[in-house]
Design a protein that fits this description.
With about 230 residues, this protein is mainly α. Helices cover about 75% and strands about 0% of the residues. The protein is built from 8 helices and no strands. It is elongated and about 60 Å long.
Length: about 230
């Protein structure tokens, strides 16, 4: 029993560190990628996108791209750790936590798919404006599609948070609101509405990470409140 408690504690702290690290790495990587000028709008014309890619600092862009991949890996660790908590709390059948894990995997896969790099790393060879726009759109659409997968994760996670006696209900409500926000963001993906759920998501990651470090999300016994619903 003592060893099991230690394992849960180790998992909780590791998951929290991964969650907090993903935030630092995401915004750090983006800061490196943005050197040379801020990115144009999702629906910017091809010439504007080409100028944006041409203005990138080769070394800093490559470093930012790599840091971004490490950030996604850290996010994958966080999502997997949260899913382990959800599965233990949910009990059998653990279908909602399975949906959360599957959605998390889909989000990570979409975020890791190539996009801007297809044009940015070949920009010195002379990239046509329409090819630059194609790569830019591919990256942005992959990012936007990941919101739907994250909405699936948050909806399933929020449901378990609300059903469980030992998990904070407010984290469940924030998860559900963010899930709806991500779906609306994808529906209107060329507008800035996505920034609202995106910000809420990272706030939720911080809140969950803090709860994990404090030991508030360690499941002591399986079983949701009122049985499986």
């Amino acid at each position: 029993m003592v060893e099991e408690t230690r394992q849960w504690r180790r998992m909780s702290v590791t998951t929290a560190i991964a969650g907090l690290a993903s935030i630092v790495l995401v915004f750090g990587g983006q800061a490196l990628v943005q050197v040379g000028g801020s990115e144009p709008a999702f629906d910017a014309p091809a010439d504007r996108i080409l100028r944006f890619l041409e203005a990138r600092h080769d070394t800093l862009y490559a470093a930012g791209s790599f840091v971004g991949l490490i950030a996604i890996l850290a996010l994958a660790w966080f999502l997997a750790g949260v899913t382990a908590v959800l599965r233990e709390v949910e009990g059998s059948p653990s279908w909602r936590s399975t949906v959360a894990l599957t959605s998390g995997i889909a989000a990570v896969a979409l975020l890791m798919s190539p996009g801007w790099d297809l044009a940015a790393f070949r920009i010195d060879d002379g990239v046509e404006p329409q090819l630059a726009r194609y790569a830019y759109d591919m990256g942005n659409l992959g990012f936007a599609n990941s919101w739907v997968a994250l909405a699936g994760f948050l909806f399933a996670a929020g449901w378990v948070f609300l059903a469980a006696q030992r998990l904070p209900n407010w984290l469940g409500w924030v998860a559900l609101v963010t899930a709806v926000g991500f779906l609306l963001g994808r529906a209107f993906w060329t507008t800035s509405i996505w920034l609202i759920p995106y910000t809420l998501f990272w706030i939720w990651v911080v809140a969950v990470s803090v709860q994990l470090i404090r030991g508030r999300l360690v499941a002591k016994a399986p079983g949701p409140r009122g049985g499986s619903s």
